[in-house]
Amino acid sequence: MFIDSHCHLDFPEFQARLPEVLANMAACKVTHALCISVDIPDFPKVRKLAEDHAHLYASVGVHPDYEDTPEPSFEFLLEEAKHPKIVAIGETGLDYYRMGDRSYESMEWQRDRFRTHIRAAVASKKPLIIHTRSSSVDTLKILKEE
Q1: Which residues contact 4 (CB under 8 A, 6 or more apart)?
Q2: Which helix (H) or strand (E) holds 93?
Q3: How far apart are CA 114 and CA 16, in angstroms?
Q4: Angle at the Cα of 29 from the Cα atoms of 24 and 31, rounded to 5 degrees
Q5: Which residues contact 30 (CB under 8 A, 6 or more apart)?
Q6: Taking the model in full, what pTM does it have?
Q7: What CATH architecture is 37-145?
Q8: Successive 10-residue mean pLDDT values, the chain, 146 residues
Q9: N or C: which end of the chain has fewer CB within 10 A?
């Protein structure tokens, strides 16, 4: 028995091949999978995958690479976390890798978003799925603060 703890079956490249991908998972004894949310506009697709397939589950959250997307509120994350197929909050965190020549201060939106997700995970008592890249010091600092 295997569990895929992090997949993105809602991504466009899997849409036409979803039955094949699910069959391959079964053939390889992958009995369960966690479909990870990366932004709010696509979250309904992630949740629907989990609703439509008994062996799929989902998270709710916004990835730090998605700067130009609606911000999830604490209330939104908490409400969605009540769904029986939503088993985690995230993917969230900090990613300074693509910061380029932007200042550290200009990344405050990532730190604010990360804090919102942490608070929702604590309040909902759900695991937090963390993405961290070139930002481990701040990631650990914020986790300790929250």
Answers
A1: 25, 30, 32, 33, 34
A2: strand 86-95
A3: 33
A4: 100
A5: 2, 3, 4
A6: 0.93
A7: Alpha-Beta Barrel (3.20)
A8: 95 94 97 97 97 98 93 97 98 89 83 98 98 96 98
A9: N
